[in-house]
């Protein structure tokens, strides 16, 4: 059941948008008298700026006799949410968690101006040092002005303070030293962040030279 299409409205199991459910609650629909359970899929949509209020009102207005199930793969504050449900409806709300993934998760990086995808974290959550180094090398091989040419108008053709154009290579040296000194301590996300910072600073040489005192 959506705003445009309604199929089998008398079925024993109804699938509908949250907006339709809220509308039923507003109207006091007779259908709700026969409802025992409501399953909210993708409950993290409560955080959505536009639709979040629809989910919140639907949960608030549901009669206490109707039980609820909430599904989400990305609910970061599940415990806090469960506590809110308990306080709101005066009934237990259990958090059931699993880290099992039917589809393995892999992390790739596609660098701006690069030549392809780089697998940096595989399906076993192992950091791929070899691919990360290839990714790093892809930045080094690019000239500092390559991206500014592709993004003409953002840099305005301004020259680097001091006349130097080696901002990218300077950052690369810093990154290389950090990797050598702290390779065991830096996890994959920190390493990726360093590359992103290197990437950004090479795009904005004025910002780099004005902000860093090396």
How would the blueprint of this fold be written?
Blueprint (H helix, E strand, L loop, with lengths): L17 H10 L9 E4 L11 H10 L5 E4 L7 H12 L17 E3 L8 E4 L7 H13 L4 H5 L16 H16 L5 H16 L1 H7 L3
Parallel strand pairs: 1-2
Antiparallel strand pairs: 3-4
Helix pairs in contact: 1-2, 6-7
Protein name: Helicase ATP-binding domain-containing protein
Pfam families: DEAD (PF00270)
Keywords: ATP-binding, Helicase, Hydrolase, Nucleotide-binding
By CATH, the superfamily of the domain at 1-100 comes out as P-loop containing nucleotide triphosphate hydrolases
Quote the CATH topology of the domain at 1-100: Rossmann fold
Quaternary state of this entry equals single chain
Task: Determine the strand fraction and express it as a percent band.
Answer: 5-15%
Low-confidence sequence ranges: 153-167, 206-214
Termini distance?
62 Å
| Structural Rg | 26 Å
Features:
214 residues; mainly alpha; Rossmann fold; two-stranded parallel sheet; two-stranded antiparallel sheet; 8 helices; 42% helix; elongated; disordered C terminus; nucleotide-binding; DEAD/DEAH_box_helicase_dom; helicase
Could you characterize the architecture of this molecule?
The chain has a two-stranded parallel ribbon with strand order 1-2. It has a two-stranded antiparallel sheet with strand order 3-4. The relative contact order is 0.08. Among the domains are: 1-100, Rossmann fold; 103-142, no CATH class. Helix 1 (18-27) crosses helix 2 and helix 6 packs antiparallel against helix 7 (188-203). Mean pLDDT is 77; it is low at 153-167 and 206-214. The chain is mainly alpha-helical. The protein contains 8 helices and 4 strands, in the order H-E-H-E-H-E-E-H-H-H-H-H. The longest helix has 16 residues, at 167-182.
């Amino acid at each position: 059941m959506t705003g445009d299409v309604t199929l089998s409205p008398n079925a024993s199991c109804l699938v509908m948008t949250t907006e339709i459910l809220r509308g039923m609650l507003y109207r006091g629909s007779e259908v709700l008298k026969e409802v025992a359970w409501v399953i909210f899929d993708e409950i993290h949509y409560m955080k959505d700026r536009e639709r979040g209020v629809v989910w919140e009102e639907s949960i608030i207005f549901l009669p206490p006799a109707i039980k609820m199930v909430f599904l989400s793969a990305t609910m970061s504050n599940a415990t806090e949410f469960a506590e809110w449900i308990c306080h709101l409806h005066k009934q237990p709300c259990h958090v059931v968690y699993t880290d099992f993934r039917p589809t393995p998760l892999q992390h790739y990086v596609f660098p701006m101006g690069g030549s392809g995808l780089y697998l940096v974290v595989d399906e076993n959550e192992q950091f791929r040092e070899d691919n990360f180094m290839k990714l790093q090398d892809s930045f080094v091989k690019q000239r500092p002005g390559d991206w500014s040419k592709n993004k003409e108008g953002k840099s305005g053709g301004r020259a680097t303070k001091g006349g130097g154009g080696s901002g990218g290579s300077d950052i690369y040296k810093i990154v290389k030293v950090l990797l050598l000194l702290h390779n065991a301590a830096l996890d994959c996300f920190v390493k990726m962040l360093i590359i992103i910072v290197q990437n950004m600073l090479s795009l904005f040489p004025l910002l780099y030279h004005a902000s860093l005192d090396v």
